Amino acid sequence: MRVLVTGGAGFIGQAVVAELVDTADGVLVLDSLRKDVHRDAGASARERLGALGVDLLVGDVRDPEVVGAALAGVDAVVHLAAKVGLGVDIADMDDYVSSNDHGTAVLMRCLAASGSPRFVQASSMVVYGEGRYTCNDHGQVSPTPRTREALSHGRFEPGCPICGADLTPGLVHEEAAMDPRNTYAATKVAQELLAAIWSRETGGSAVSLRLHNVYGPGMPRCTPYAGVASIFSSSLDRGEAPRVFEDGAQRRDFVHVADVARAFVTALAATNDESPPHRAYNVGSGVVSTIADLARALSASRKGPEPVVTGEFRLGDVRHITASSLRIQDELGWRAMVSLADGVSGLSFG
After folding, report:
1. What's the rounded Cα separation, in Å, for the pair 45 and 56?
2. C-alpha closest to that of 96 among 86, 110, 106, 108
3. Which partner from 4, 121, 127, 130 sits 20 to 30 angstroms from 213, CA to CA?
4. Distance CA 349, CA 213 (A)
5. Strands 132-135 and 139-141: what pairing?
6. pLDDT, tens digit, for every residue of 175-192?
7. pLDDT tier at 225 (50, 70, 90 boundaries)?
8. Would you tell me how many other CB atoms lie within 10 Å of the CB of residue 276?
C-alpha cells in the first residue's frame, strides 16, 4: 500500500511518517512548508524525511494540479495539512477556512478522481466545544459560551443554562453533538462533513481522528499556535515559572505524539470495503489531567520554578474537554501507551 501524507513535514506528520515506513510499500509527503509552521523553511523536516527514505513534494493542498500529481499511484491518504490553533482573531478567519476546508475539498475532489478508497484525517477534540457536563437538577446539559465579563471576574466554570448551578464535567463520547466555539474548531467540523460526503458518494472509507492535546519530541516551540506544553517549556528554558491561565483546573487529556502516530496507522490498516463510510474516533490518553498538572510535571522534569497561576484567560478557550477513547480501543484495538510523566521527561522541540 502506497500512502500519501499531507502535512507530513509537520510535528504530527513526521511521527506518522516514521510509523508508516515500517508497514507501507511507499510513503510520499505533500507539504507546503509554510513559514508560520516551519520557521527554518523546512530544512530540518527535509533532512528527517530524507533519512527515512521518504519523498517530499513541496506544494499546497489547495492546488489541484499539485494534489493530482501527488495522488498518482497512491492507495490511501493520511490528511494532516491544516492551519492549527484557535483562530487568533476574525482577521485569521478566511485563512483558516481556505487552508483547512478549501484544501480538504480540493483533496476530496482529486481523491475521487484518482479512485483511492482509503482516507484518514486529523480532526480535533475542539469540535465538541465545551465538554460533557451534568447538572444535579437537570441532567446532561450544554453550557452556554463563557463571557468575557464572567472570566474577567474569575468565574471560570460554566453554569447550567437552565438554573445557573455549577456543573460536573465528564467524558465526551463520539455521539455528542458538535459545537465549535472558534474558527479552527469550525473548520475541523467542516472537514469531517466533507469526508463523510466523499465516502458516501464514492464508496470509499473515511476516518476522522479527534485528537486531544498532542505533545512530544519535535513539537513546535514558538509559533503563534504552539501548544501549552511548548509555552510552559519555553518559560522554563528562560528560567521563568510557567504562567498558568485561569485557575489551572482546566481538564484536558494530553496524548503523546508516538501514540497518535500509532492511531493513524491503526486506523489506516482497518479501513476496507466493509468499513463504515465515515467513522470518527476520539484519540486521547484516557487519563484526565489539568493544565496545572502539566505545568507541574514540566517544572519537575526540568527542576525549574513552580508554576504561577495568573487568572488570565483567552476568550476562545473551553473550560473542560476530555473524551472517552473506548470506541477506538474496542473497534480498532488501539490504546495509548505513554504516560504524562514519561512523555514530558523526554520532551524536545523542533
Report:
1. 9
2. 86
3. 4
4. 16
5. antiparallel
6. 999 988 889 999 999 999
7. very low
8. 13
